[in-house]
Amino acid sequence: MKKYILSILVIAFSSSTLFAQWTKGKGKGYYKLSAWYLESDKHYETDGTIRDNVNRKQFNVNVYAEYGVTNNLDIIGYIPFFARVAQDNQVSGTTGAVLQKGEGLSSIGDIDLGVRYGIFKKGKWAMDAKLLLGLPTGNNKGGSDGSYQTGDGEFNQFLSTSLGYSTNFGDLPFYAKSYVGFNNRTKGFSDEFRGGVEAGINLFNNKLWIISRLNILKSFKNGTLNAANANGSIFANNIEFTSFGFEAAYYITNKLGVSASFDSAFSGRVIAANPSFSGGIFLDIK
Q: Which superkingdom, per the lineage (predicted)?
């Protein structure tokens, strides 16, 4: 039986940026320490159908940061300094005997570094462009069979632009933004189109943000990488999904807060079919 590797995309830069949708401004910043978790026993096949798989767990602890170098230029970093993937024992349903022992792997994950440039900000509208570089710092061939990954092993460049609008509904601050981007991938992986929309509203005297988002990823299917490796598994080439997510962020003080989020793909190919969860603490220097 094929051992399918779950292609996990932590959409760090749509979920972690939260309500920091504009350039920060010189000397200002947003910093977040969070943990992310996914436990999956199902995946989307290449034809979009859902199939069962051996239960696997993905977990990481990460730091995300934005800092305004100038009023129009931010530097961005996402560092999953601890990442772990683990698989449960495979147990016979009739005898209870362990058919295959579970195992796990821990390492650093793939790091993302980038910049965001504010193209314009006029009235309630703002537009920016962003370049993110995905560094292959994780382990892409771990475990006894090489199927335990904390990274994909390739260097990618993601260029995107976003358009945002902010206003008030009565006394409640509100924003909405959309983005489109192109992800250039190396090592024989297919390039990708990414797009999405996000909206958030602030409640309880600027204490609580409620955010919803929709993300789409489509593969250009122009890579040379064979979808199945020597282990008969599939990993991170020609993945596709449409996902939705929700996030809540509560300000304990004017700068310090906590957040929790939920994301799940409701259609896809070669990707986990279970929801992921995240929680963290952030510092917003305005």
A: Bacteria
